[in-house]
Amino acid sequence: MSPRSDRPGSDRPGSDRPESGRAPIDGPAGPDGETSDDAQSKRDAAAELHRPSDHVDSAVDDSGADGADAGGTDGISAPKLGPIGWLRFAWRQLTSMRTALFLLLFLAIAAVPGSLVPQRSSDPNGVSQYLDEHPDLFPIIDAVQGFDVYSSVWFTAIYLLLFISLIGCVLPRTKHHWQAMRAKPPRTPARLERMQGLRRRTLAGDDVEQALAAGERVLKSKRYRVVRYGDSLSAERGYLRETGNLIFHGSLVGILVAVAIGGSFGYNGNRVVVTGESFVNYIGGYDSFTRGRLVTDDTLSPYRLRLDDLQVTYEQDNANAIGAPLDYTASVTVQEPNSTQTSKKQIKVNEPLRVNGTNVYLLGNGYAPHLTIRDPDGTVVFSGSVPFLPQNAQLFSTGIIKVPDGLSEQVGIIGLLYPTKTTLDSGALASSFPDLDDPLLTLSVYTGDLGLDQGIPKSVYQLDTTDLTLQAGRNAPEPAPELTPGATVDLPNGLGTVTLDSIDRFASLEIHDDPTQAWVLAFAILVLAGLAASLFVPRRRLWLKVRRGSDGELSVEYAGLARGDDPRLDEAVQEFADRHSEQLGGAAQTGRAGDGETKPIR
User: What does the alpha-carbon distance between residue 199 and residue 206 come to, in Å, rounded to a whole number?
Assistant: First the structure.
């Protein structure tokens, strides 16, 4: 738009007109003695009040304020946000649906490192092993809380921002949706030819009321909300689409809340139980234990669980899967608190045992040789079952026995168990089957300071041989002692004897208590249901307009409008028109349908 320079008072650069913008007009004054120039000036002043300050025809502020430069030329005054304005802007950005989706994506990405490196909350031994294997990388990962991903500052920040964003999205939309559900469908448009799927029919008869009543019956049979406006009907359906959308986002909030509560009031622990031994549900009874911030020592429900037997079935017929486990079944005896009654139960993989609000899972199994070590005088200095950790699918296992007292020296033993002994071409021993068909136990015996008197916790599954002396084993003065069940061999240097009494099985149990587990499941189902409704339920409006023709017939128009993507809208309008025509034909006995006409959207 080119600048106007023909109005009074124009002093824009480049204007060569006189200040009045026109030649003086001599003539009679108005009723109040006002000349035509005065009237024009007043009209221009009134128009100036309706123009924004940056309009090309607006008056120029020569004072230099509000964006005018030093030369007195025009400047656009940009809006300035104060602290409150910036807070409002940040809140609008945070509570937008786009931000919520980005935060949901970031949360999923942020959870990935927790599956790549061991976590202190679930695998503290794995963290220690990672330190031994990657001493240079460990400090870097630890500095960014990589071993505490799910309780880290950055993961919690994303979690809380997502929670706030979803709340800010859901609440206003819920209010708006509630108001929309209570409101009537909008009035019928004056020009239905602008709508989608227009159909025109000419029907016999002149009863407008009957035509409208028939249309209302058809629409209500399809669960439309119908309102009559004069000689037309306005119908709407598909509110379930937005309802499903709100349920989806509201359920996400519910999952976040439930997970937060479950993380605060729940606990998780692991215990290795040897056949014939018992486990009592208290903090000291666990091998590893992780609890929420609000879990106290008295929170745990006391009960006693004894492992009576562990049956494992292996594949023996399929040559390609020999030794593959087919079934694990742990038979246990459970004693409830304040009761002398016991009950027999079974635990299987993916079939946990529910006891006093906790779930007991069977995670794994292995062998626990029962060893008895005596000094040279025959006094028992060690006796018990030692769980050996499986190293492969054939259950070749390793275990550690530590004897700090009772012998002339502290003794540490590394045991290698072969459930079904076989000899490789290289001469090395191996296990060919996971069951105890031909078991053999070999021992590597060390002497020296075991480091148990330093006050530093030591793993029962590891033996630090740095300051120890190898007395028997590979590359040792004496060969490694070999034992079969029931056998007794001498320890080197006259330290005593060791007996393999039996080889028992152990079960690795996980005890999990999550008070919000059912809520998380319910919200997860609602998430899927809401998502399905928001994706597959169409939101549409249909209209019916009836006019009485001059020739005694009815002119009927049908049209629709989709609220979003609805590829079947034309089909819905066509079906509505056909059913309405059929009902009118059956009621009047003279109904006939004219040729349908479809108009494109304009």
Answer: 19
Q: Please identify every stretch of the chain with a pLDDT value under 70, giving residue numbers as ranges.
A: 1-76, 78, 586-602
pLDDT in tens, 26-60: 444 544 455 556 666 666 655 555 545 544 454 54
Write out the two tokens for 493. 């240097």
Q: Are the C-beta atoms of residues 515 and 261 closer than 8 Å to each other?
A: yes
In CATH, what number does 184-238+538-588 get? 3.30.310.80
How far apart CA 373 and CA 490 sit, in angstroms, is: 10
- Buried/exposed code over 285-316 (b: 16+ C-beta within 10 A; e: otherwise): bbbebbbbeebeeeebeebbbbbeebeeeeee
Chain center to CA of 331: 36
Closest CA to 229 of 216, 217, 218: 216
Residue 534: name the closest of 104, 110, 173 by CA: 173
Give the pair of three-digit tokens for residue 80: 């300035």
Task: Give the up-direction half-sphere exposure of residue 91: CA atoms within 13 A in the CB hemisphere.
Answer: 8
Tell me the chain's radius of gyration from C-alpha atoms: 42
Burial (CB count within 10 angstroms: exposed 0-12, middle 13-18, buried 19+), residue 391:
middle
- Residue/partner pairs of 220-224 with CB below 8 Å, 24 or more apart: 222/576, 224/542
95: helix, strand or coil: coil
Cα–Cα nearest to 548, from 300, 293, 159, 230: 230
Per the CB < 8 A criterion, the answer to whether 548 and 208 are in contact is yes
Tens digit of each residue's pLDDT (9 = 90 or more) over 475-529: 888 999 999 999 999 999 999 999 999 999 999 999 999 889 899 999 999 999 9
CA distance to 178, 185, 530, per residue, from 537 (Å): 18, 18, 10
Helix (H) or strand (E) holding 257: helix 239-265
Tell me the pairing of strands 325-335 and 342-348.
Answer: antiparallel
Size of the chain, expressed as the number of residues it contains: 602
Q: Are 51 and 60 in contact (CB under 8 A)?
A: no
What are the C-alpha distances in Å from 511 to residues 204, 283, 359, 382? Answer: 77, 11, 6, 29
- What's the distance, CA 520 to chain centroid? 11
Q: How far apart are CA 416 and CA 445, in angstroms?
A: 12
With CA atoms as reference, report the closest residue to 502 among 271, 273, 276, 272. Answer: 276
d(C-alpha 274, C-alpha 368), whole Å: 7
Helix, coil or strand: residue 242: helix
Supply 104's token pair.
Answer: 């949901």
**Cα–Cα nearest to 563, from 249, 248, 247, 239:** 239
Strand arrangement, sheet containing 540-548: 196-204, 553-562, 540-548, 232-237, 225-229
Residue type, 22: R
Question: In whole angstroms, how far apart are CA 443 and each of 247, 293, 412, 440?
Answer: 62, 44, 10, 10
DSSP H helices in 328-387: none
Q: Closest Cα to residue 510, out of 320, 364, 370, 397?
A: 364
Indicate the domain borders of the chain: 1-60, 83-152, 184-238+538-588, 245-266+515-531, 267-513
90 C-beta neighbours (distance < 10 Å), count:
10
Contact between 511 and 271 under an 8 Å Cβ cutoff? The reply is yes
Return all residues near 13 (Cβ < 8 A) that are at least 6 apart: none
